[in-house]
Design a protein that fits this description.
By secondary structure, this protein is mostly beta strands. It is 8% helix and 26% strand. It has helices spanning 2-20, 35-39, 316-322, 376-379, and strands at 26-28, 42-44, 54-56, 61-63, 132-134, 147-149, 158-161, 166-169, 176-178, 182-184, 190-192, 200-206, 209-219, 226-237, 240-246, 259-263, 266-267, 277-279, 286-290, 296-301, 305-312, 334-341, 380-381. An eight-stranded antiparallel β-sheet has the order 11-10-9-22-21-20-19-18, with no helix packed on it. It has a seven-stranded antiparallel β-sheet with strand order 17-16-15-14-13-12-23. A two-stranded antiparallel sheet has the order 1-2. Strand 9 and strand 10 form a beta hairpin. The longest helix has 19 residues, at 2-20.
Length: 427
């Protein structure tokens, strides 16, 4: 019985093996390029690949296919980048100003990409070169600070009469001295006194005031005289000496102070600011004040005189009009002056002083374009502070006899091209 069971087990195993056995595949070379291998007929696949072998016709050998590699595991998924940060919303567009309205008085700029704003129009009057002036005297509140355009007869130099609240030409009133020297006498008559260059002449001589002027100039080859201008003053009064002068200047700059003042031999310094004032320590009655930041002063000796002095150049325009022949070597800076006298006597003398005398009759020829007054020999002095002219009256003290009334000075402005014709006025 046991043997029977063993045989049945062996038989079962054989049946299982036989059921699982698979017949080997046969392959043959079919490439006609290799006839020898084709002639060998069929080959049985080896046990390593009974169903999948192939034959290499060139070598006539069986080969098993290589096992396919396992597929590689896919790479880990890439991390997606973080979402972009939200950018702040753009600012709202700025509202552009509305385009300027077209004006028939202004042209469009040619360069539209870079338009330029046109400068504001100059104040009325300055278009034609006329300057402006203000009343600076606070004791006249209705006039103080009011601005006026200079008159056409003196477009570059005028002042405001605070009493009448109106602009007036400087150096057009009695007591004025300017240009090649042009005088307005105390009698109101305009005349010229040419003198000679580099010489000194007495302008005013009285018992307690003596004023000499030094002339500078150029020789005109086509004329028999020099062109002359007042470069400096030497003033004697009481026991004092006052010097006022214009410094020699090559190129004119109105912002640079070219005025020189000295009192009793000591140079006077004033801050360069209009209204700056100084009184003499030795003589408190004498005051010096700047009228502008540079080149203009007013000097007063109480009870005796007041002088306004402004340094001005000879301009190219003046030189062309009058044929002065000014070069770049010197612009002939000189003084424009106006005088006011408080205590002159009836016999006062000098080029200008004689016109204030009690019984003076002008010797200038009336009705001509340039009435000229002579007297070079009579009024010539040997020096700026000399009192040796033939017409001298100076003694250094005030005489109370034969005094005249207070005489106003001219309120500055010599304009080139004035007609210069004399006008007789009564005091």
């Amino acid at each position: 019985m046991a043997k029977l069971m063993a045989r049945l087990g062996v038989l079962l195993v054989l049946l299982v093996v036989a059921a699982e056995a698979v017949p080997a595949e046969r392959v043959k070379c079919m490439d006609s390029k290799y006839p020898d291998c084709m002639a060998n007929g069929y080959y049985i696949c080896p046990s390593g690949c009974p169903q999948t072998c192939t034959i290499n016709c060139k070598t006539c050998a069986l080969t098993c296919p290589r096992s396919l590699p396992l597929p590689a595991s896919p790479p880990p998924p890439k991390k997606s980048p973080p979402p972009p940060k939200k950018s702040p919303p753009p600012p709202p567009p700025k509202k552009l100003p509305p385009p300027p309205k077209k004006s028939p008085l202004h042209c469009r700029p040619r360069n539209r990409r870079h338009p330029r704003t046109p400068p504001p129009p100059p104040p009325s009057g300055e278009v034609s070169g006329q300057k402006r002036a203000r009343c600076k005297n606070k004791t006249y509140p209705l006039s103080y600070g009011v601005e006026f355009t200079c008159p056409a007869s003196c477009p570059t130099q005028c002042e405001v009469d605070c009493v009448t609240c109106s602009p007036v030409c400087s150096y057009d009133k009695p007591g004025a001295v300017c240009q090649d020297p042009r005088f307005v006498g105390g009698d109101g008559i305009t005349f010229y006194f040419h003198g000679k260059k580099d010489r000194d002449f007495c302008l005013v001589s009285d018992s307690n005031i003596h004023i000499n002027a030094q002339f500078i100039g150029r020789r005109n080859q086509d004329m028999e005289r020099d062109f002359t201008w007042v470069q400096s003053l030497g003033i004697l009064f009481d026991v004092h000496r006052l010097f006022i002068g214009a410094k020699k200047t090559l190129t004119w700059d109105e912002s640079v102070d070219r005025l020189s003042v000295a009192f009793d031999g000591q140079s006077i310094y004033l801050p360069e600011a209009g209204g700056a004032k100084r009184r003499s320590e030795s003589s408190p009655d004498v005051s010096i004040m700047r009228l502008c930041d540079a080149n203009a002063v007013e000097i007063e000796a109480q009870g005796n005189f007041k002088i306004k002095a402004i340094v001005v150049p000879i301009t190219k325009k003046d030189s062309l009009i009058h044929n002065y022949g000014i070069t770049q070597e010197d612009c002939y800076a000189h003084l424009d002056l106006s005088f006011k006298f408080y205590s002159l006597h009836g016999d006062v003398s000098g080029v200008l002083g004689q016109t204030y005398a009690k019984n003076y009759v002008s010797r200038a020829k009336m009705g001509v374009a340039m009435p000229v007054l002579g007297g070079e020999r009579e009024f010539a002095s040997s020096g700026l502070f000399a009192t040796d002219c033939a017409a001298t009256r100076f003694i250094g003290s005030l005489s109370l006899s034969n005094l005249t009334d207070n005489l106003e000075h001219g309120d500055l402005s010599c304009n080139g091209g004035g007609d210069g014709r004399g006008v007789v006025c009564k005091r």
